[in-house]
Protein: 3-dehydroquinate dehydratase
Organism: Oceanibacterium hippocampi
Amino acid sequence: SSILILNGPNLNMLGRREPGIYGRASLDDIRDACVQKATALGLSADFRQSNHEGELVGWIQEAAGRFDGIIINAAAYTHTSVALRDALLAVALPAIEVHLSNIHAREDFRRHSYLGPAVRGMVAGFGAQSYLLAIDAIAHILNETTD
Ligand code: DQA
């Protein structure tokens, strides 16, 4: 199986961006860890980042038929984007939402996710490890649907 791992705005600045909240790992570090984890579970992973909502919507639409599942850290678009939610609902692939930080322990506006109804579940608060936990979860979901 193959999974698409999507990253939203400002995540290209990880490592330099508010390291007290988001940690010292760069997005390249997280990509390497994700690819390694996915490979160990027999999955192939395509890891992408965009600062543009429409590009993310396009990637989700194109995932239909090409990928078996989606992991998404929509970053600030989590809290603003009906379009990303609708795209995830449209392709109907199993999807998991991830966040580096615990979005429930920060400003009130981060506590609401538009993606909530479009994903199987959410992992937040474990830094880069959130992505690896989400890969475990999606591997579990994909195994259930194949056996
Ligand atoms: C984030 C949390 C969001 O609230 C924020 O806008 C981000 C990153 C996280 O991974 O913790 O950019 O998605």
